[in-house]
Write a structure and sequence with these properties.
With 126 residues, this protein is an alpha+beta fold. 46% of the residues lie in helices and 15% in strands.
Length: 126
């Protein structure tokens, strides 16, 4: 069963709740390979000690490496991250309408971090 996590927005979005639903294993693995390939192709490097880093450091360094990539190249991956996010309403959940479901850009940054975290938390299972 896919994991889900509810996350509150930030600032002007603080009254909104977003639901992050884990990608399938196939889709998550494909996303990770595309991200690592892009990081390597753009000359960015992940530190050698990353596999021994605490989880929070792994998330931070992974996202920092991704954000060093040319935006035009990274944009499809960033957009794909948001396909895991829906908005929680009184009637249930629905897919995002990007122009209408965010007022504070910090919410998007928080959601991307949470999407990344949800898909990499298996590193802390041991």
């Amino acid at each position: 069963m896919l994991k889900t996590k509810d996350v509150s927005g930030v600032g002007r979005d603080s009254a909104r709740v977003y639901r992050i639903t884990e990608m399938s294993a196939f889709k998550a693995e494909k996303w990770a390979i595309k991200a690592l390939w892009l990081i390597a192709a753009n000359g960015s490097e992940l530190p050698d000690d990353l596999s021994n880093a605490p989880f929070a450091e792994f998330v931070r360094k992974g996202l920092v490496a991704l954000f060093k990539v040319n935006f035009k190249d990274a944009e499809p991956l960033l957009d794909e991250m948001l396909t895991c996010v829906s908005i929680v309403t009184q009637a249930g959940t629905r897919q995002l309408i990007l122009a209408d479901d965010f007022e504070d850009p910090r919410t998007l940054i928080k959601l991307r971090k949470e999407v990344f975290s949800l898909h990499t938390d298996f590193f802390t299972d041991d």
